[in-house]
């Protein structure tokens, strides 16, 4: 099973072998004489004790194979339509969910493409189309979405045919950006004016929220961070924002001691001159980023937004372009930079 040798095993059967043996991975569609059904089934299950087949006989002239429901008429002719299990609920991506429109149109195109590919005649195809429109309508899809999705599909097919006749290679530099409703669409239109294709990626997924196979490491042992240090003294408003690849505990140790190299850190200078202090558990983790360049950009964004008093000018690894200004000024300051003990210390992400 799952190997070309399976056909040889079938041929070794001493009775009348199947006249048809269609296989895809571990699913087979077999045609054989009724009186050979039991002995053949026993034969293939005796070949290897670790491989056991199950069987499903044809019922009312229908037999499922992969995504196809195969109809065998009395005259022996065969037709195919889309197969759904009895437990299928017709639940698809809801139209009002936080996903790009292209993803929702892709649901329509995928389902209609399957209907057009599997349905063997126009009647079955129209029945499947009507079923999909009804099911997707329950999921919130409007009539215009079907027209838009299927029109785009036709246009893409036309462009594909045209491109095949042109031997000149087209170099395309794709850009992938996080999806934020309305904002991402505007960015795509801007990139489109410069013939730059844009793809979207989700920023939050169910896997990120629900699947946590490992215990979260203690705060002191976390690394690749953008962090904020707030002075513990109630009358002091001084704040410092930095980034580190090291663990938080190691980086805080460096902030608390005098430097043996090119100057003390701003945090150490403040603590030494004021005799104030701070606790590692009070350090706020603003962001996590493994990539060195991107972590520097995130640090610069948070510094620009929070305007920390202890950050020295020119201490950033990345200088933000002016294009960031209009975006950052509309982002509210992180309210976890508060001295109120009732406020939690969230894992803030931009």
Describe this structure in words.
There is one protein chain. With 350 residues, the protein is of the alpha+beta class. It folds into four domains: 5-82, no CATH class; 101-162, no CATH class; 172-213, no CATH class; 219-328, GIY-YIG endonuclease (3-Layer(aba) Sandwich), CATH 3.40.1440. 36% of the residues lie in helices and 14% in strands. The chain is built from eleven helices and ten strands. It has helices spanning 5-11, 37-46, 101-118, 122-138, 143-164, 183-192, 206-210, 248-256, 266-274, 292-306, 325-328, and strands at residues 20-24, 27-31, 62-65, 68-72, 78-82, 175-178, 198-201, 225-230, 239-244, 284-288. It has a three-stranded antiparallel beta sheet. A hairpin with a 2-residue loop joins strand 3 (62-65) and strand 4 (68-72). Helix 3 packs antiparallel against helix 4 (122-138) and helix 3 (101-118) packs across helix 5. It is elongated, with a radius of gyration of 32 Å. Mean pLDDT is 82; it is low at 338-350.
Order of helices and strands: HEEHEEEHHHEHEHEEHHEHH
Largest sheet: 3 strands, antiparallel
Tally of discrete structural domains: 4
Characterize the overall form: elongated
